[in-house]
Amino acid sequence: MEQAPSDPERQLQPAPLEPLGFSDAGLEAAVGEQAEGAREESTGDGTMTENNFWLKKIEISVSEAEKRTGRNAMNMQETYTAYLIETRSVEHIDGQSVLTDSLWRRYSEFELLRNYLLVYYPHIVVPPLPEKRAEFVWHKLSADNMDPDFVERRRIGLENFLLRVASHPILCRDKIFYLFLTQEGNWKETVNETGYQLKADSRLKALNATFRVKNPDKRFTELKHYSDELQSVISHLLRVRARVADRLYGVYKVHGNYGRVFSEWSAIEKEMGDGLQSAGHHMDVYASSIDDILEDEEHYADQLKEYLFYAEALRAVCRKHELMQYDLEMAAQDLASKKQQCEELATGTVRTFSLKGMTTKLFGQETPEQREARIKVLEEQINEGEQQLKSKNLEGREFVKNAWADIERFREQKNHDLKEALISYAVMQISMCKKGIQVWTNAKECFSKM
Asked: Cβ neighbours of residue 272 under 8 Å, at least 6 residues apart?
């Protein structure tokens, strides 16, 4: 596969958000004014609320999930889930509220959108998609990707993905993203016509660059190590949470035995019967409450999973930088080799062993005309190499500048989101414990009245 385009203008600037002539005039009017300035590249140093004109102009939601049956590319019947995306202008035109525009998308289409964004915006930490199959779940939840509870959680995750992209100062302006929200038919064909697959870097080339680059940027090396450690830490945290949830589920459910025993006991007691029966009822309520508690807790686990997958997005930026650095080093090495050949031809001395040198010794020296012709060709190649090296240097510096700006934006977002998620998780645990205390307080009152 070919390398990503070397043209820094196409690589680093978002596609224009052009008027597309769709039926929803209200949506176009909402974003049309901002579309005119879509080619003005953002520096990436703004907060998420300063540049998200999409979220200021329209509301984006994934409101429904629907199980469907159809035929795939192999003409085989399959069952899949489709998600309803709704976009609605938050502004009023001529005093009238704009109606909601909606279309259905499959999970694979969300994947296609993200793959496109990864190719055309390699300097950006592209928001991840929610998991395709459930992981790190407590035993009561199904790992089946068609399970209604899992589908609902994935619906929320897909909506969050769209909101992340819409709030990004650069990604929100991309034409393909706009079409994803507004054009149901032929959208895949439009994406494929961009040729993004041909521009994607091959995994083999990326792996080769990782091991062969000679002067890696220390900042990106440290960032790559940080992303590995972040993924490892969050994975362990999610595993611990799943084990705690399993044990907590068992403890709560065992409390249901109190209810059964108290109920049986009340049948043989006259004076104590009512108190025991009431206490048993409170124990049954306590035992059944854990189902809703742990299902709500999955919401906080999904927030952690998002940053588990963000770690791979960070590594993608690092891999792209390694590829660019590797190409730069190869270009510099090739240029140095051609300069040495030109010098050797001009002076008539050979500094290193070469096949050409052995051929000269065996078959005689070149004529002056032949040597001059070769020197001229090499000089032209050297000039081209110097221009190419200069271009790659400029492209590399621009990539580092834009990538680091987006990484800083991501760090602020990460710190804020994880702080909020952990605080909310702690508050939920405190609330759960308070409910448990209240149940036992009620049971105590029942015992006191016996």
From this structure: 265, 266, 450
Q: What whole-number distance in Å separates Cα of residue 8 and Cα of residue 326?
A: 17
- Residue entry with tokens 């049971």: 443
Task: For residue range 338-359, list pLDDT tens digits in order.
Answer: 888 888 777 766 555 455 555 5
CA neighbor of 449 nearest in space, from 258, 286, 274 = 274
Q: Establish how many alpha carbons lie within 13 A of residue 84's alpha carbon, considering only the half-sphere containing its beta carbon.
A: 10
> How many other CB atoms sit within 10 Å of the CB of residue 36?
12
The residue among 322, 324, 338, 326 whose CA lies nearest residue 386 is 338
Query: Can you give the pLDDT at residue 279?
Result: 92
Per DSSP, the residues of 73-110 read TTS-EEEEEEEEEEEEESSEETTEEPPPEEEEEEHHHH
Q: Which residues contact 306 (CB under 8 A, 6 or more apart)?
A: 128, 130, 157, 160, 417
What is the Cα Rg of the chain in Å? 31
pLDDT in tens, 125-164: 999 999 877 665 655 555 556 678 888 889 999 999 999 9
- Pairing state between β 77-89 and 58-71: antiparallel
Beta strands per DSSP E along 150-218:
none
Contact in structure between 311 and 376 (CB atoms under 8 Å): no
